[in-house]
Amino acid sequence: MRILVLSAFLLLAQLAAPLAAHAGDVAELEILGFSQDGSVFAFEEYGVQDGSGFPYANRYYINTADDSFLQGTPIKVRLDDENATLEAVRLQARQKGEAIVKQVELTANRGITAGFNPVTELSADPFRMVVNPRPIFFPVDDPLEFRLDEIGMNNTEGCESQGEINGFRLLRIEAKAGGKTELLHEDKSIPKSRGCPNGYRIGAVQTFSPQGLSAYAVLIAVRQYGFEGPDYRWIAVTGRL
C-alpha cells in the first residue's frame, strides 16, 4: 500500500512540475478609487516577480480630465529580498502615495466596479465590455460600451526577440440612437514603461457618480513574456462624462 501511495505522490509531483515551471507573474489589481471631485483615479498592482521572487507594488494616480499621470507618479516599489512580504512592499507604496492623494479619500470615493473580467476568465470577450454604469434598476443611464483593438508593432526597438508585439486602440461607443464613437486612446508607439507587450484585454470598468455619472476608468491587462511564463500588468484609460 505504501508503494502505491508513494507512486501516486510522485506522479502528482511530476504533473504539477510543468505548471509551477510556467506559472508566470500575474499582478493582482486593487482599485483604490477616485479623489472627492473625481479629478483623480488611482489603482495599485502588486505581486511577486517570477524568476527573482522579489515582491513589488506599483501605484498609479491619473488625471481623469486628460488621462495623464500626476506629477511624482507612478509610484513603484520593489524589495530585493526573497524573504520580504507583500504586506511590507504594499505598505511602502501606500505611504509614498499619501503625498499624492490620501488613502482615506480614495477609500471614501472608490466608485463602482461596473464590470470585471479577470485574466483567468475564458468565456468573456477580452476586447469588448458593455456595462450599466450604476446599479440602478431599471437603468436610468445609457450603457457604457468599450472596445479594444490590438495594433501590430513588431518593429518596436528592443523587442525584436519577444515574439509578436502589439499596441492598442480603445473606443467608447454610445449605445443611444445616433450615438458617436469616441477614440479614447491609440498607440503610435509603445512607451518604454510598458516593456514589450504581446497582447491586451479589458479587465474592468470603474465608474464614479457622487451626484451623477462624472468619471470612469477602463482597466486593461497587458500580457508580456515573463521568466517562467506570461506576465500580466495593468494600465488604465480614464475619462470624464
Q: Could you name the key traits of this structure?
A:
single chain; 241 residues; alpha+beta; five-stranded mixed sheet; five-stranded antiparallel sheet; 3 helices; 16% helix; globular
Care to describe what's here?
It holds the Pfam family DUF2259. InterPro entries: DUF2259_secreted (IPR018725). Keywords: Signal. This is DUF2259 domain-containing protein. With 241 residues, the chain is α+β, with helices and mostly antiparallel strands. The chain has one domain (23-240). Helices cover 16% and strands 41% of the residues. It is built from 3 helices and 14 strands. Strands 1-14-13-12-7 form a 5-stranded mixed beta sheet, with no helix packed on it. Strands 2, 3, 4, 5 and 6 form a 5-stranded antiparallel beta sheet that branches. The longest helix has 20 residues, at 2-21. Mean pLDDT is 91; it is low at 2-21.
